[in-house]
Fold:
Amino acid sequence: MARTDYGNFLKRLYGCRVQKLNVNAGFTCPNRDGTLATGGCTYCNNSSFTPKFGRASATVTQQLLDGKQFYKGKYQSVKYLAYFQSYTGTYAPESKLKLLYEEALSVPDVLGLVISTRPDCLSDEVLDLLAVINLRSKVIVEIGIESSHDKTLQLINRCHTWRCAVSAVERIVSREIAVGAHLILGLPGESQADMLATARAVAQLPLSTVKFHQLQVLRGTKLAQQWQRGEVALQEWTAQEYAIFCRQVVDCLPPSMVVERMVATAPAQMLLHPRWGLKPQQFDDLFHDL
Ligand code: SF4
Structure:
């Protein structure tokens, strides 16, 4: 069975070609606001993946309209998904989430929601809300799992366990909502054998999609300080070596699991390590040419 690519997965789910539009709804995260911790995950710098049109100061509607404008003319007959990517996309009371999600879905041509969140921020009330929305506008929940090793999760200050992630995936799937996992390869203290063990553990979960990327050391993060002081040893792989390792990771996953992406590309001015200077398409070409 050939693995479906992410574009075709979305096309099948939504019935047409769709483009994700980032929305910054002004959420924070329990790992930052003091509920669980204040410093956040050691590698976290949300600015690295927030485009210009994802400004928390603008309304959800305005951000989506700006996003549509940005992509206007780039593709023919494209529809959109509201992508609640910044921080923790379910971290608000259910009543507020309902308003924000419904506002997104009321924007013309927005067909569904993709919600990125932590495994410990999915109450039954929130999942029930998503299940109701999912009946008319498909929802995908992306869970930050990062690693199956609790020792690593502790080291990077995730403040949740692998067991918590497994339970979140099961609870989402029990409501017939598609779920994707996010993993990071090259976390401090992990060998390649550890990362492959995570891939094999993730392969056992009822996931629709998986996305992973190399650990990036970004300016202004705790990880950057640790790395500059020599307190953490990180993978020194080249882009080619990383691509070869990605092949091993992908081979651990069942063909039914869609691989959304394998590399992250933070803006050059924010990135300290590894500085490969590749665009996502260039990395994909490298991977497919192996
Ligand atoms: S990576 Fe996610 S969970 Fe961790 S601090 Fe950043 S927003 Fe919060």
Notes: The chain is about 35% helix and 20% strand. Residues 29, 31-32, 40-41, 44, 87-88, 118, 144 surround iron/sulfur cluster (CB under 6 Å). The domain at 6-288 is CATH 3.80.30.30 (pyruvate-formate lyase- activating enzyme).
